[in-house]
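1st attempt posting a full record on here, be nice pls
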Amino acid sequence: MSETIITSLITAGALILVQIIISRKQQRIQDVKNEYVIKEVQDDIKRLENKQDKHNSLIERMVVVERDLKTAWKNIDELKEREDRK
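the predicted structure (as tokens):
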């Protein structure tokens, strides 16, 4: 009887040990997957930041163009008024 109990305890202990090993391996695999996903998200964020920087640069340049265009049209209108006076 005690041999059966000892055998059962050894078997149970071995099964628990195997389950712990399997669980740790699965956790390591999940950690690697998570690291990969995090890296991909970080790369996507960097690409979006670069696009945003280009967009912001374009907006800044367009503000200058619009200001200069407004000045040019004002000058054209003044020239037309001078021509009309003559």
